[in-house]
Structures are given as C-alpha cells and as structure tokens.
Design a protein that fits this description.
With 181 residues, this protein is α+β, with helices and mostly antiparallel strands. It contains six helices and eight strands, in the order βαβββααββααββα. The protein has two domains: 65 residues; 100 residues, no CATH class. The N and C termini lie far apart (97 Å).
Length: 181
C-alpha cells in the first residue's frame, strides 16, 4: 500500500495578504478536485485557480502601488519653481559657456540640460527649493560626477554651484526690492 505524500505550501509571511494565506493548505499529489468524467478539470484545479487568482491580484496591487508612487511625486512649490525658472532664464541669456563632462556648451544648451534635470527632480519629488535644485542638478554631472563650470566672457571659469548661487541671490534681491502693491 502506497502512502500519500503531503506537500505543504510555505506559511505566509504577511498575514495582511488574505490571498497568500489561502495558499497555505495541504496538497496531495494525486488528489482530484472533480473527476474529468464529471466535468472537472483534473488535479488540484482549485489550488491552481486560487494561485492564479492570487498572483493576478498581487500583480495588480503591485502595479497600482507603482502608479501611486508616481502620483505622489511632488513638484517644486510655486515660489521655488519660479526662482529656478528665473535662474535658468538668466543662465540662457548670460552669454556664458557651461562646461559639462569636459565639453563647453552654450548657455542655451546648458539651460535646456538643466531644465531636463529639473523635470526629472520634479517627477521624483527630490527637490523642494532652489538651493536643493542647485545641489542636485546644477553642481555636477550625474553621469560622470565631474563638477560643472561656468565661464563668462572676460572671466575665469567658476564652479557652477557658485555661479548659480550668486545669481539666485541676485534674483531674490531684485524680487525683494520690487515694491508690492
């Protein structure tokens, strides 16, 4: 007489997932849920359907959490965004050159590059003010790690973080000096 071998599914690690706890029942290799002749699908179909259903639910839940994570990314506050955009406009109109990864680029190319980095930071919710934008996007290359430099006509190259910080201070001083209605 043959003994029936019992296989046990692993115990669920997270009891908060009801789907996973359903899979912890005892399975017998030769057990049939309903004989094929009686219209059943054969061996362990109840378990297979349950496993497929649970996998589907977990996949959907994981997908929704990823979408939810994207939706939770917060853009820069309005004041900080206007400061950063003013900073990029000032860079583009400065006539300076921008050194990125060992190559000098025009101010317009630099502004376009930093605007793409701003979009990336906003999608990830990484920066909350203009100083964080300068630290995270305007200081060095995320590709090579090399520091950015700015070279204005008739001046020696300076680190971009210094140039951007000075220009940010000038923008804030101009806003503060503007009379409010």
């Amino acid at each position: 007489m043959r003994k029936r071998m019992e296989l046990r599914a692993p115990k669920p690690r997270n009891p908060a997932l009801p789907c996973v706890s359903r899979l912890s029942g005892t399975l017998k290799p030769n057990e049939r849920s309903a004989p094929r002749a009686a219209g059943g699908f054969g061996r362990n179909t109840g378990f297979r359907r349950s496993a497929i259903r649970c996998t589907l639910l977990l996949t959907i839940a994981l997908g929704l959490s990823v979408v939810d994570g994207v939706a939770l990314a917060t853009p820069l506050p309005a004041v900080a965004r206007s400061e950063v955009l003013a900073l990029l406009a000032k860079l583009e109109s400065s006539g300076c050159e921008f050194n990125r990864n060992g190559t000098w680029h025009t101010a317009r190319e630099a502004g376009s590059h930093l605007a793409r980095k701003l979009d990336y930071l906003e999608r990830n919710g990484s920066a909350q003010n203009a100083e964080q934008f300068i630290d995270l996007a305007g200081t060095n290359s995320s590709l090579s790690g090399d520091a950015y430099q700015v070279r204005c006509p008739g001046a020696a190259p300076v680190p971009s973080s210094l140039w951007l910080t000075r220009e940010l201070q000038a923008i804030r001083a101009a806003v503060a000096a503007t009379p409010k209605p």
